[in-house]
């Protein structure tokens, strides 16, 4: 079971909330994946679309496309996890293998198998902005520009999903979070 909370753009986080920068993904260079450069003159971002179908060799398939912050998208907030080879998994993005840490892999795997077909993660008109994937972690200049824009990126998202990982008692947790 998994635990996923949603924050809608109706009540964005306060501007004074500090942005917690994620650690470098230096153990996951993803050197074979080629990012198309973002247009710095606009509010360009990259969003991920998840396929509900695995590749022929059983790998999660995704598509990464350019979008702007004025389009519909959701953000994922999650813990990157510890660095280490035992916590890395491969997914396919635009037909190329891409390494992600275990917590993000668990989110994608859980969403692929449990989210209803109408969920935003499958919507071809609405993707997910996920910092570890949407920002080219091997390009320091891009990373600095995109990290500086994370506040507006999160504020302009239609949804912000918080992934806390898998939990054995998810039913109890969800019942405690339901409005009364």
Task: Note down, in words, how this protein is organized.
This protein has 180 residues and is an alpha/beta fold. The chain has one domain (2-17, 42-177). It contains five helices and eight strands. It has helices at residues 102-114, 131-134, 140-148, 150-156, 170-177, and strands at 2-8, 44-50, 61-68, 73-78, 88-93, 96-101, 127-129, 159-166. The chain has a four-stranded mixed β-sheet with strand order 1-8-4-7. A four-stranded mixed β-sheet has the order 2-3-5-6. Strand 5 and strand 6 (96-101) form a beta hairpin. The longest helix has 13 residues, at 102-114. The two termini are 23 Å apart. The relative contact order is 0.28. The model is unreliable at 1-27 (pLDDT under 50).
The low-pLDDT segments are 1-27
Q: What is the approximate shape?
A: globular
> Radius of gyration, rounded?
16 Å
Order of helices and strands: EEEEEEHEHHHEH
Which sheet architecture does the biggest sheet show? 4 strands, mixed
- Strands of the widest sheet, in order across it, are 1-8-4-7
Integer average pLDDT = 79
Count helical runs.
5
β-sheet strand percentage: 25-35%
Helix content: 10-25%
E-strand count: 8
Number of domains: 1
Give the structural class.
Answer: alpha/beta
Tell me the distance between the termini: 23 Å
């Amino acid at each position: 079971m998994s635990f996923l909370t949603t924050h809608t753009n109706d009540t964005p986080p306060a501007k004074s909330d500090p942005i917690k920068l994620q650690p470098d993904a230096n153990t996951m260079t993803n050197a074979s994946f080629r990012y198309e450069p973002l247009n710095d003159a606009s509010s360009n971002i990259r969003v991920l679309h998840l396929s509900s179908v695995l590749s022929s060799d059983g790998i999660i398939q995704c598509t990464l496309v350019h979008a702007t912050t004025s389009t519909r998208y959701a953000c994922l907030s999650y813990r990157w996890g510890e660095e280490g080879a035992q916590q890395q998994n491969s997914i396919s993005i635009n037909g190329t293998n891409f390494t992600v840490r275990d917590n993000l892999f668990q989110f994608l795997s859980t969403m692929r198998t449990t989210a209803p077909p109408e969920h935003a993660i499958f919507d071809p008109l609405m993707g997910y902005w996920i910092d570890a994937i949407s920002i080219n972690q091997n390009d320091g200049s891009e990373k600095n520009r995109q990290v500086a824009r994370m506040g507006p990126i999160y504020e302009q998202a239609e949804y912000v999903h918080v992934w806390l990982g898998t939990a054995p008692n998810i039913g109890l947790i969800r019942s405690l979070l339901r409005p009364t």
